[in-house]
Design goal:
Elements: H1 17-34, E1 38-39, E2 45-47, H2 48-54, H3 60-64, E3 68-70, E4 76-79, H4 84-93, E5 103-112, E6 124-133, H5 138-155, E7 160-166, H6 173-185, H7 191-199, H8 210-213, H9 228-243, E8 249-250, E9 262-270, E10 278-285, H10 288-291, E11 299-305, H11 306-315, E12 328-332, H12 335-350, E13 355-357, H13 364-374, E14 378-382, H14 384-389, E15 391-396, E16 402-406, H15 410-421
Parallel strand pairs: 1-5, 7-8, 12-13, 12-14
Antiparallel strand pairs: 2-4, 3-4, 5-6, 6-11, 7-9, 9-10, 10-11, 14-15, 15-16
The protein binds one RNA strand of 76 nucleotides through α3, β6, β10, β11 and α11.
RNA sequence: GUGGGUGUAGCUCAGCUGGUAGAGCGCUGCGUUGUGGUCGCAGAUGUCGCGGGUUCAAGUCCCGUCACUCACCCCA
């Protein structure tokens, strides 16, 4: 047992799996980048009050899962448990909302929640997210959802599902909340569940325990109590989603754990992931910006779980990010050859060719073995004869064939053949 | 946070009713003179998660602890 271990519940990614992680992260961000979203790099910790006010004091995320600490200036700071509050804070602080609206941003990075770790539930979790702020056009809701769906599809994922609903707004939700509260009051619920119902009755709707679930058969649903505006908005969103050919499932009991969500709300789940099946989710938020001290602009965004999406890819047997890490591997057989190799290596890499060489003064056999392990399709062998003749041997590892090339022409030749193959 | 399971070489795991550790894969080397992947041979690596207890004796039983894992909860 090593003296030091990574903190509990914190995943690490190292080769070879780390390349799959990078591929997933890039794939999740790609559609948004191509839709004109700009990148925003945010602090990993913020004023604790930002999350308390923005995400909601009553949420589990804020009330019992935040890593909160006091800094040397006696300020209360918290490791960010989610991304939206920070993005909104930055928009307000830097007045990003004073130009053309909507402001469209994307971000990626670690978030922190002190939950009990599980497969796919980590204390340091990675997310890729986007926010479109300053507009309540339902087409924007559809765009955000479409970009998430596209990201998953690009990776080759198939066994996932999109749940969609509307949570209403400040006009219609309070009335519905009352109806639901009255309904829940007459059920047989245990104390913790009653407490939860008092805090946020919506939350009880997606309780998975059979003894609770079975009593919810004819519970009143938000979608049946939407005001006219919310109803229209939701209908339009669905219309635009059809235009974009996105498949979804109506999920009238879908609830989100963050208080700021209003109207359009969605979640992507993967069927092979077990209890932690949510691979992404998001929705619209009407009051968030105002509650953080900005103008009353509406926004919509998503957060996609990088860790869980990687898990989902693995569960579906997709080998994302696979493939050799270098195109060429150089094998020197003598001291003079090592000098030639170091020079050649620099030239290869400068020419954009991914290259590595045999280090450690291994024998030819051992070096060839290392070359094989590297996965490089081509190996450049340089021995005393080659040094004298100012040429090199280039071996095609798949076919086993080998040919001599002059020192001057190797780089060009290799670049040509690599480019041919990548087409 | 609540309840269950697991923890043995780098990896996957075997070790029956307690008697001081094994396999496969991987790794290193060899199969003569400058060539990998297959094959054959040889070799290295474990305070059996950690701490305590019971016992003549514990990987094997008991307690604690840490980590992972499953469900709830929560959510990405």
């Amino acid at each position: 047992m090593p003296e030091f271990q990574a903190p509990k519940g914190v995943p690490e990614y190292f080769p070879p799996r780390s390349s799959a992680f990078l591929t997933v992260r890039e794939a999740l961000a790609f559609p948004a980048q191509h839709a004109g979203y700009g990148y925003i790099e945010l602090p990993v910790f913020e004023d604790t009050a930002l999350f308390v006010r923005g995400v909601g004091e009553s949420t589990d995320v804020v009330s019992k899962e935040m890593y909160t600490f006091t800094d040397r200036g006696d300020r209360s700071l918290s490791l960010r448990p989610e991304g939206t509050a920070g993005v909104i804070r930055s928009i307000v602080e830097n007045r990003l909302d004073k130009g053309t609206l909507p402001v469209k941003l994307w971000y990626a990075g670690p978030f922190f929640r002190a939950e009990r770790p599980q497969h796919g539930r980590y204390r340091q979790l990675q997310q890729v997210g986007i926010e479109a702020v300053g507009g309540d056009d339902p087409a924007l809701d559809a765009e955000v959802i479409t970009l998430a769906d596209e990201a998953y599809r690009r990776l080759g994922l198939r066994q996932y599902r999109l749940d969609l609903t509307s949570l209403g707004c400040a006009q219609c939700r309070p009335a519905y909340r009352e109806v639901l509260t009255n309904f829940l009051a007459q059920l047989d619920l245990d104390e913790p569940t009653r407490a939860r119902a008092a805090l946020n009755p919506l939350r009880v709707l997606d309780d998975k325990r059979p003894e609770v679930h079975d009593q919810l058969g004819d519970a009143p649903l938000m979608v049946d109590h939407l005001c006219a505006e919310c109803r229209d908005h939701y209908d339009s969103v669905r219309g635009f989603l059809r235009d974009a050919r996105v498949q979804w499932q109506e999920a009238p009991r879908l609830v989100r754990g963050l208080d700021y969500y209003t109207r359009t709300t969605f979640e992507f789940t993967h069927e092979l992931l077990g209890a932690q099946s949510g691979i992404g989710g998001g929705g619209r938020y009407d009051g968030l910006m105002e509650s953080v001290g900005g103008d009353a602009l509406s926004g919509i965004g998503f957060g996609l779980g990088t860790d869980r999406t990687l898990l989902a890819c693995e569960a579906e047997g997709l080998d994302v990010g696979a493939g050799p890490r270098v195109d060429v591997f150089v094998v020197p057989i003598s001291d003079a050859a090592r000098h030639v190799s170091v020079g050649l290596l620099a030239e290869l890499r400068e020419a954009g060719i991914r290259a590595d060489m045999a280090y450690g003064g291994r024998g030819l056999k051992g070096s060839m073995k290392a070359a094989d392990k590297s996965g490089a399709p081509r190996v450049v062998i340089i021995g005393e004869d080659e040094v004298a003749a100012q040429n090199v041997q280039v071996k095609d590892m798949q076919q086993g064939s080998q040919q001599a090339m002059t020192r001057e022409e190797v780089v060009g030749e290799l670049r040509r053949s690599i480019m041919e193959e990548s087409q």
